[in-house]
Amino acid sequence: MKRSGFTMIELIFVIVILGILAAVAIPKLAATRDDAKSATRGGEVTGLIKEMGAYYTAHGTLAADIKDITNVKNEPSATPLVQGSTVDLNDSTGAACVRITVGGAVINDGNISVIGMGASPSGECKGVRRMVGTALHISGNELNTTTAFPIAFGGDSNITF
Question: Are the C-beta atoms of residues 114 and 100 closer than 8 Å to each other?
Fold first, then answer.
């Protein structure tokens, strides 16, 4: 009687090939996931900056609280927008990534500044900083942790939306 089926060598060969494919594919999928997180958070940060500008343009002042302008997740979630207040935007692990500071002489002048946070940022945070830096036309296309980038919605600025 003749049996049909696979030999042990054939099965081992298939298992080895599947192992090689998995070893190659898993790191690529992890990198793609980090890129997706960076793109999502970077879009939220640039969206928040645009929403602050739109609110200032429509009302001539910033709202008393950040939650009145946007639903982008920030720390702390209910941040009063007063002179010198900061809005921290974290990566998915909760590490500080980008900080927006309300600046200028008075709250009604529409000036803010954006700076990168954290001494050793995650890959996700680096992607967010690159995306925000590109959107703001920053030299080198990335926010850094040493120089805040000024944005003036109510007057002369390095950037216009």
Answer: yes
Encoded tokens for 156: 């002369």
Cα separation of 31 and 124, whole Å? 10
161 domain residue, yes or no = no
Count of the separate structural domains present in the chain: 1
CB atoms within 10 A of CB 90: 18
In a domain, 86, yes or no: yes
**Is 160 among the domain residues?**
no
What distance in Å separates the CA atoms of residue 32 and residue 88, rounded to the nearest whole number? 25
Report mean pLDDT in 10-residue bins for the chain, 161 residues: 80 94 83 82 86 86 79 64 77 84 67 82 84 80 80 64 52
End-to-end Cα, the chain, rounded Å: 80
Token pair recorded at residue 158: 């390095």
pTM over 0.85: no
